[in-house]
DNA sequence: CGTGTGTTTGACTGATCTCAACGTCGGTGG
DNA sequence: CCACCGACGTTGAGATCAGTCAAACACACG
């Protein structure tokens, strides 16, 4: 299901400056290198299952995954979209709280849980970086609660497209005019993320298209001709804070 | 608006074993004591405002507060209910991301932000405790996303009552039979927490009452005659994981 | 005893869901 | 090569749950 992948030196790692290792100096990277391993998981495969044991703490190096929970009657809610540099697992806990599933082929940089916990104690730069990333995730999760609890279907879809465009852009890009992107999620995955049905999601995409706010060259390929106009639909007036 | 309150020794502090200081030894407590101050805020007053500067990192010692965001058109979503030992503010950021408002009179144990950031570097027990608390908050925020995104009004109200009862009970209590509690929130605050209107919230409370799942001696005083039965309405089958 | 705030209840509206049919695309095998 | 198939996405029609608007009620307070 997953395959071991040759280890890449941290210096040439694509998430070197954004993952838990971002603040490490070369000595600390040495330490990380000695205990890390890589693994590649095909699209659609589970990376973790709620309630089951999680032996490793992993960072996403490439690819994309969702974190979700499914109720007994089948209702599913995605609680996080994981992109490169996001982590899976947590120190001090042996079991996963949510299901994590690869949307595309995913490459992970992994640390055995106990070894990672030791690392946290020994290398303060990893601990402080993990705290910062977790605080950011917490803010993002709370921002998302506003979307789920108070936004209309149209606003939800617009907000999703805006936030995905922002995250896929190189950090710091302004994102003013036209933007093109490929959706890593199916309609069903988008619906689960937004707390909507597939049908409502599809209808809102169609509506945004008919209103000229988005263009679709294929189901997965979206062009936003005027980023600001779509952001306005998302209820984002540009003073920041709202969008994940 | 808020008043300075005499400093209490950490040894007799009600949140000594659950707040950010929980893992500290006596030397570390000494350090904390030297820079802490107390403040008491009356019910209804703001503890923080989104976008405005936050000079202190504070823990709630007694009382109850909500963290929320209000959209431009007035829609409000509560993103967290803060009870004793929960914290307000974050290291490394000078501005609040959300509004925080006292529901009852609140007593805070506060640290000036820069001093607290120094403390985090110097006392690993504070840093590790803060990381653990933040990871727990993140799990809770993600759990709440499932409630907001996928539950019906009835399930939302039942889930809220169950989770409030669990949090108010002394940690570790089983909560099997009858439970009595006083709601710290108005109907409006409950509605904002659940992503519902006041009217829908009120109707669901009435429905649960008529179904014998709750009893109300006043608007704010609730008795749950059979905790398990209400938990079932909340979609909580007892195998854990779902409820905050 | 009036006034104001918070809560409940009722009647109606409407956004989203449900159920169902149809369309599109890519892969497969005759 | 092309017909078939299945997965995914779109569209339509009707049902339903929660929202809106409005009125009544309850309680605290001056």
TrEMBL record, chains A, B:
Superkingdom of the source species: Bacteria
UniProt keyword terms in alphabetical order: DNA-binding, Transcription, Transcription regulation
Residue ranges that the Swiss-Prot or TrEMBL entry lists as coiled coil: none
GO CC annotation, single: cytosol
Annotated InterPro entries: cNMP-bd_dom, cNMP-bd_dom_sf, Env_Response_Regulators, HTH_CRP, RmlC-like_jellyroll, WH-like_DNA-bd_sf, WH_DNA-bd_sf
PANTHER family named in the record: CRP FAMILY TRANSCRIPTIONAL REGULATORY PROTEIN (PTHR24567), FUMARATE AND NITRATE REDUCTION REGULATORY PROTEIN (PTHR24567:SF75)
Protein name per UniProt: CRP/FNR family transcriptional regulator, anaerobic regulatory protein
């Amino acid at each position: 299901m997953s395959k071991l992948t040759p280890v890449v030196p941290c210096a040439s790692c694509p998430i070197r400056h954004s993952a838990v290792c971002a603040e490490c100096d070369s000595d600390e990277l040495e330490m990380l290198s000695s205990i890390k391993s890589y693994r590649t998981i095909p699209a659609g495969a589970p990376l973790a299952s709620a309630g089951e044991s999680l032996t490793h703490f992993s960072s996403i190096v490439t690819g994309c995954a969702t974190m979700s929970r499914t109720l007994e009657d089948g209702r599913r809610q995605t609680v996080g979209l994981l992109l490169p540099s996001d982590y899976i697992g947590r120190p001090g806990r042996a079991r996963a709280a949510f299901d994590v599933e690869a949307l595309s082929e995913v490459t992970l940089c992994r640390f055995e849980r106990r070894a990672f916990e030791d690392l946290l104690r020994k290398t303060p730069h990893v601990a402080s970086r993990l705290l910062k990333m977790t605080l950011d995730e917490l803010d993002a999760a709370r921002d998302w609660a506003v979307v789920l609890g108070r936004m209309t279907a149209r606003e939800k879809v617009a907000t999703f497209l805006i936030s995905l465009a922002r995250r896929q852009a190189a950090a710091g890009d302004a994102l003013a005019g036209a933007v093109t992107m490929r959706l890593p999620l199916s309609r069903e995955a988008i619906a689960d993320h937004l707390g909507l049905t597939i049908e409502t999601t599809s209808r809102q995409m169609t509506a945004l298209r008919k209103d000229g706010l988005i263009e679709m060259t294929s189901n997965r390929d979206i062009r936003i001709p005027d980023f600001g106009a779509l952001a306005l639909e998302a209820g984002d007036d540009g003073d920041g804070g709202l969008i994940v």
